[in-house]
Amino acid sequence: MSPLCPLLLALALALAAVPGVRGACPVPADLKSANGTRTCAKLYDKSDPYYENCCGGAELALQPGADLPYLPSDWTNVISSLVVGQRCELTVWSIRGKAGKKRKFSAGTYPRLEEYRRGIFGDWSNAISALYCRCAPAPVQTPRRRVS
């Protein structure tokens, strides 16, 4: 067996376990509502060992500035996949009222929250009870002046 084979196998396994792999999740740049307004984040109640099956089930879209210290009862401790829009940040807490463990998710795709540690023994899948989502303002394009 070639000495290169174990290295290639290790590389393939490492790439398969990279956080941020998209699977069936939307691209952060595509997070917009039906009328074209910006969406801060989308939360999903289903994940799967296979990335292509993640970001399924019920979906909760958050607008910029969404501040939910008490998630609706049907969303408390059920979120297992999420996508955060570009130039946005989602802060989550493990206990209602913004208490307990806290984590910030920057722009990106998080198909399996089981891969993100919450303390020594826990993870963030089915553990989010409060959240705050904020986005930086979109850059303002100024018209260029013509020099005569």
Description:
This protein is mainly β and 148 residues long. It has one domain (21-135): Gamma-B Crystallin, domain 1 (Sandwich). Helices cover 9% and strands 35% of the residues. It has one helix and eight strands; from the N terminus they run αββββββββ. The protein has one helix at residues 4-16; strands spanning 41-46, 56-62, 67-68, 81-95, 99-110, 117-118, 122-123, 130-135. Strands 1, 2, 3, 4, 5 and 8 form a six-stranded antiparallel β-sheet that branches. The protein has a two-stranded antiparallel ribbon with strand order 6-7. The longest helix is centred in the first third of the chain and has 13 residues, at 4-16. It is globular and about 65 Å long.
Please name the CATH architecture: Sandwich
Structural class: mainly beta
* CATH homologous superfamily grouping: Crystallins
Task: Report, as a whole number of angstroms, the end-to-end distance.
Answer: 72 Å
Sheet with most strands: 6 strands, antiparallel
Identify the CATH class. Mainly Beta
Number of helices: 1
